[in-house]
Amino acid sequence: MLKIRLRRMGSRHRPFYRVVVSDSRRTPLSAALDELGYYDPRHSPSVFKVDMEKVDHWISKGAQPSETLSKLVRKARKGGFVDDAAADDAAAEAPAEEKAEKAEATEEKKDADKKDAEPKAEAKAEEASAAEEAPAAEEKADEADGEQAEDKGEA
């Protein structure tokens, strides 16, 4: 009996599937009679690119689609998947959008830092002027003490 099923490809944690027609008694990784397309669930939205004419051809010859593939084909016929070119465009646009978002975030952070820096600079200036005034006030106090001592000595 012939089966139309998904053959898992890709590396660990990065699944990619080919849609193949093979003998049901063989393992999914064995030689396939025909490759009908592929399914990439890692894209957002998922990409399912299959030649529907070939699928119909193999089903008419008696091939049975797997349960998962039946669901995917039904969804594809309803227009639930993005074609491959649109997925490539979306993948190309995503990094550009991320860069723009990062640039905006960086500008916002710089603006926030400037706003935070202004009060800090004002506080530092006030501390510096207070520090300059403090020795002058101490000198005045010392002079006043000296004058009081002189007044007592004269009396």
Describe it.
This protein has helices at 52-60, 67-77, 84-154; strands at residues 2-11, 14-23, 34-40, 47-50, 64-65. It has 155 residues and is of the alpha+beta class. The chain is rod-shaped. The protein has 2 domains: 2-82, Ribosomal protein S16 (S16 Ribosomal Protein, Chain: A, 2-Layer Sandwich), CATH 3.30.1320; 83-155. It has a 5-stranded mixed β-sheet with strand order 4-3-2-1-5. It has 3 helices and 5 strands; from the N terminus they run E-E-E-E-H-E-H-H. Strand 1 (2-11) and strand 2 form a beta hairpin.
Explain the layout of strands and helices:
Layout lengths: L1 E10 L2 E10 L10 E7 L6 E4 L1 H9 L3 E2 L1 H11 L6 H71 L1
Parallel strand pairs: 1-5
Antiparallel strand pairs: 1-2, 2-3, 3-4
What keyword list fits this structure?
155 residues, S16 Ribosomal Protein, Chain: A, 3 helices, five-stranded mixed beta sheet, 2 domains, alpha+beta, single chain, 5 strands
